């Protein structure tokens, strides 16, 4: 027996914690992480879509109006597409957390809605993405820009959701690979980026957010959680 199926079997083990029956230990660990930080969540709150795009997101974080999907591995194109559809239809943030709750053991993909005209979007790129100019004039009607690096924009005809930075002004979303950090001043936890949030909503400390000792402590609780205690769920 290879190791991989054994790992998948562990991942899929139903786990009771804090009154919820999580479909996997991994989801329960992320719930421990949210609890350790006092982040309110609703598990499997509502499903969306239909057919192959039917989708029951793992968590809804009501205080920040954000959907969270937990994946053991980097998401597939279909999983990304489901996140995009949820983001643009609900006009809310969608975060895919792929991997274990521990620094450098997970990836964070952050989908957020945008509404720009092509001209406004070029202005946005120059102001907030620190792109001095678009070296090649955007082709009229082509509205998908793929970011390969902070200073480089590659224009493509289609949308491949696996690229780390995507802006699709036609469909009205952006996706970035981000980090979960904590602001040392206001204690907010999340993907801090004044290019995503209204800068006026961020304190000065938010721009210097990092893995604080409290955030590290939440990761440690999630990593060390034992679930033998059933629904009481004391980790
Ligand atoms: Zn702050």
What is shown here, in short?
With 235 residues, the protein is an alpha+beta fold.
Description:
With 235 residues, this protein is an alpha+beta fold. The chain folds into two domains: 3-114 and 172-180 and 213-224, no CATH class; 116-157, no CATH class. It has five helices and 13 strands. It has helices spanning 3-11, 25-36, 77-90, 118-128, 213-224; strands spanning 15-17, 20-22, 42-43, 59-61, 66-71, 93-99, 106-113, 144-149, 152-155, 165-168, 173-178, 181-182, 189-190. Strand 12 and strand 13 (189-190) form a beta hairpin. Helix 2 runs antiparallel to helix 5 (213-224). The model is unreliable at 131-144, 146-163 and 231-235 (pLDDT under 50). The structure holds zinc ion. Zinc ion (ZN) binds at residues 183, 185-186, 188, 202-203, 205-206.
């Amino acid at each position: 027996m290879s190791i991989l199926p054994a790992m998948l079997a562990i991942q899929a083990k139903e786990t009771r914690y804090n009154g919820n029956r999580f479909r996997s230990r991994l989801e329960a660990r992320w719930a421990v992480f949210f609890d350790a930080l006092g982040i309110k969540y609703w598990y499997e709150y509502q499903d969306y879509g239909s057919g192959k795009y039917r989708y029951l997101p793992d968590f809804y974080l009501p205080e920040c109006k954000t959907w969270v999907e937990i994946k053991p591995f980097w998401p597939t194109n279909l999983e990304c597409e489901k996140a995009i559809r949820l983001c643009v239809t609900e006009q809310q943030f969608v975060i895919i957390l792929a991997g274990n709750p521990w620094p450098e053991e997970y990836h964070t993909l952050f989908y957020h809605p945008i509404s720009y005209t092509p001209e406004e979007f070029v202005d946005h790129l120059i102001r907030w993405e620190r792109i001095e100019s678009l070296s090649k004039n955007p082709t009229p009607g082509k509205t998908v820009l793929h970011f390969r690096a902070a200073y480089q924009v590659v224009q493509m005809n289609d949308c491949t959701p696996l690229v780390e930075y995507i802006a699709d002004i036609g469909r009205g979303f952006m996706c970035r690979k981000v980090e979960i950090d904590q602001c040392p001043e206001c204690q907010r936890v999340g993907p801090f980026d004044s290019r995503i949030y209204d800068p006026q909503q961020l304190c000065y400390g938010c721009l210097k957010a990092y893995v604080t000792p409290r955030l590290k402590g939440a990761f440690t609780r999630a990593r060390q959680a034992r679930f033998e205690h059933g629904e009481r769920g004391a980790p």
